[in-house]
Amino acid sequence: MVAPHTWNPFIDYPVIFWHLISAPWSNLDKAWGVIPMYMSLVMAELYEPKPSPKNAVQGGANLLWAGIDWGRVSLMPVLGAVLDLWYKLPEKQRLSHLVDCLAPLLKSPNPLITTTTFCTILLGIASIVVGVGKKKRKAGKFFRYGRFSCYLCIMLYPLQTNVVLWSEYGWNSVFVIVLFALPVWLLLSLIFQVILKLK
């Protein structure tokens, strides 16, 4: 159960953040999709805590896989509609009615899902390129942390899989993910530094 909007960001944003973190765990079937991200986060922090090209490639693969999967899930109904129109036409008329068959593509599903899916795929590709690249660029340093990709996937997972509907919070969800990125980053750094010192 989510608290109603109070229009006070100091109350609403932590509630949204908690809802995004906890929602997949309300149903074990839904949690299976996010468990690998948590495991990836823990393993990367325990065994490769420093920024490295390996982490960038691993994180990029996480982002790329998640983005492709979310795109497959969210765009599958649209692609199904295109194929239905295509195969309803006689074979000789298909090319002349190609524009009509592609019409469902113009009626995009939720633009937030499409935008975040596309951005996740681009970030995954960028992270892999940074990890594979020979030069160390300052701008690409955050890609070399495993927690970057894991945090993004964990936070977007409930929204992209409709565990939490985008319509419930809209762009506030994206703002909350960005707003809490630094505090979560610092908290994870502190937690894993303590754990690594105990090893």
In short:
The protein has 199 residues and is mainly α.
Itemize the secondary structure elements and their pairings.
Blueprint: H1 9-22, H2 28-31, H3 35-47, H4 53-88, H5 98-101, H6 103-106, H7 111-132, H8 146-160, H9 166-169, H10 171-179, H11 181-198
Helix pairs in contact: 1-10, 3-8, 4-7, 4-8, 7-8, 8-11
Task: Give your account of this protein's structure.
By secondary structure, the protein is mainly alpha-helical. It has one domain. It has eleven helices and no strands. It has helices at residues 9-22, 28-31, 35-47, 53-88, 98-101, 103-106, 111-132, 146-160, 166-169, 171-179, 181-198. The longest helix is centred in the middle third of the chain and has 36 residues, at 53-88. The model has no long low-confidence stretch (mean pLDDT 83).
